[in-house]
Amino acid sequence: MKTVTKGAALLIDGGPVCFEDIVAVAKDGLPVAVSKSPAFLRKMAVTEKALMKSIREGIAVYGVNTGYGKSCGNRIDLKAVIKNAPNILSFHGCGTGEPIGIEETRAAMLTRIICLARGYSGVSVALLDQMADFLNAGITPVVPCEGSVGASGDLTPMYYIGAALDGARLLGAVRARRAVIGQRADRALGRTRRADAPP
CA-CA distance, 21 to 92, in Å (whole number)? Predict the structure, then answer.
């Protein structure tokens, strides 16, 4: 692993990120920082509020309160959305085979942060921060190399990353990039629900 210049970090602000920076995070441990600029925070908040408003008002949002694929015409009411959200996630925990490499998993995590930071998905900045904390602490979920097919191709791998963020697959399913993780890992893990804790 190369030595990263002290104080250097890749700033995620919804803009483009070059391939070289993705490699630097994945392979060399370049830290990741999520922007706290007012403009970026406003943009993220607008779409997050729009998503919540749509759910409350019963406006169809694909994959949130509708079915998937050919079932997209099926609507799900608010109570079912809240109750079944964990099931939608765990439904994709069907991977198999050897784990993909740590560097490949880190690259997948970073590119997902970049995508979500564009502000079109309605996710919170806190989610981006948590993913960045995992990367910066060297915490890498174990992601099987096989099991995802379909248009997106990443639902199964992203399940394992999401489940680790939620704590559902944290114990026994996280690899540390360094033998001693230190306080940064403690802070990242502090944002994650223990696997044996109630939801």
Answer: 29
Range in 44-48, 66-70, 142-146, 191-195 with the lowest mean pLDDT: 191-195
- The catalytic residue positions are 62
Quote the DSSP letter at residue 75: B
Grade residue 148 by pLDDT with cuts at 50, 70 and 90. Answer: low
DSSP 48-71: HHHHHHHHHHT---TTTTB-SGGG
Neighbours of 78 (CB within 10 A): 12
Domain ranges, ordered by start, for the chain = 10-48+86-190
10-48+86-190: CATH topology:
Fumarase C; Chain B, domain 1 (1.10.275)
The beta-carbon contacts of 68-72 under 8 Å, at least 24 apart in sequence, are: none
Taking the CA atoms of residue 166, residue 171, residue 177 and residue 180 in that order, the dihedral angle to the nearest 10 degrees is 120
Which pLDDT band holds residue 94 (cuts at 50, 70, 90)?
A: confident
Token pair recorded at residue 153: 């191709």
Residue pair 163/193 in contact (Cβ under 8 Å)? The answer is: no
